[in-house]
Design goal:
Elements: E1 2-5, H1 7-21, H2 25-40, E2 50-51, E3 58-61, E4 67-74, E5 83-91
Parallel strand pairs: 1-5
Antiparallel strand pairs: 2-3, 3-4, 4-5
Helix pairs in contact: 1-2
């Protein structure tokens, strides 16, 4: 099982890092490491988290952080190796899905 991060998810991580790093650079690094680790854990537990608000997605609340990792499991009978795609990393207080669903 592999984990693939979309450009939007990587941009979310960058935005999170920038926002926190303004005042707490070390904390920003720790938060990003924790989010990446949580996302990579989907390799072993692809159905971890709750059913998502969008069809065929899952939402994993990052431990001890106010962020939600939105993912989708891409698997079919013909896939040699199924893949988890991390679609977004959003703040738990963010209203979503918005008019612009994750891609």
């Amino acid at each position: 099982m592999s984990v693939r991060w979309t450009q939007k998810a990587l941009a979310d991580l960058d935005s999170i890092h920038q926002a926190i790093a303004e005042n707490r650079p070390r904390t920003a690094e720790r938060v990003i490491r924790a989010l990446l680790s949580s996302g990579e854990n989907l390799r072993r537990h692809p159905r971890q988290g709750r059913p998502g608000r969008l069809p065929q997605t899952r939402e994993l609340v990052a431990p001890r952080l106010p962020y939600v990792i939105v993912s989708a499991l891409n698997a079919s009978l013909v896939d040699i190796e199924p893949e988890v795609t991390v679609l977004r990393v959003i703040h738990g207080a963010m209203r979503w899905p918005s008019e612009d669903p994750p891609k």
